């Protein structure tokens, strides 16, 4: 999997994920999430439009990241979001 970043503003970043999101990609995903959190982003948009496959380990890590989001940010509506534009 390849992940690219696009900074929207000082609080929002888009992480575009391309390829297979599987057990082998989980470490990079966690690293990117930690990096964004430590950089002070309150809102992380995970663009999964170009994900071709996701396994249960990756899905679990993705869900887990929304549960362990820093508590004070949850109170201010800050948390990661998974989006897939153009798909319903």
Q: Give the helix/strand class.
A: alpha/beta
Mean pLDDT: 80
Taken as a percent bin, the fraction of beta residues is: 35-45%
Physical arrangement of strands within the biggest beta sheet? 1-2-3-4
Query: Helix count, per DSSP?
Result: 3
- Flag low-confidence runs: none
Count the E strands: 4
Order of helices and strands: EEHEHHE
Shape: globular
Second rung of CATH, namely the architecture: 2-Layer Sandwich
Summed up:
The chain has 88 residues and is an alpha/beta fold. It is built from three helices and four strands.
Please tell me about this protein's structure.
The chain has 88 residues and is of the alpha/beta class. The chain has a single domain (2-83), classed as Transcription Regulator spoIIAA (2-Layer Sandwich). It is built from 3 helices and 4 strands. The protein has helices spanning 26-38, 56-67, 71-74, and strands at 2-7, 12-21, 43-54, 81-83. α1 (26-38) packs parallel to α2. The longest helix is centred in the middle third of the chain and has 13 residues, at 26-38. The mean pLDDT is 80.
């Amino acid at each position: 999997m390849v992940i690219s970043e696009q900074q929207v503003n000082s609080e929002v970043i888009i992480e575009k994920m391309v390829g297979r999101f599987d057990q082998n990609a989980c470490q990079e995903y966690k690293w990117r999430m930690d990096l964004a959190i430590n950089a002070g982003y309150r809102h992380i948009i995970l663009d999964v439009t170009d994900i071709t496959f996701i396994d249960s380990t990756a899905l679990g890590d993705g869900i887990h990241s929304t549960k362990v989001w820093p508590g004070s940010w949850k109170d201010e509506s800050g948390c990661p979001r998974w989006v897939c534009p153009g798909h319903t």
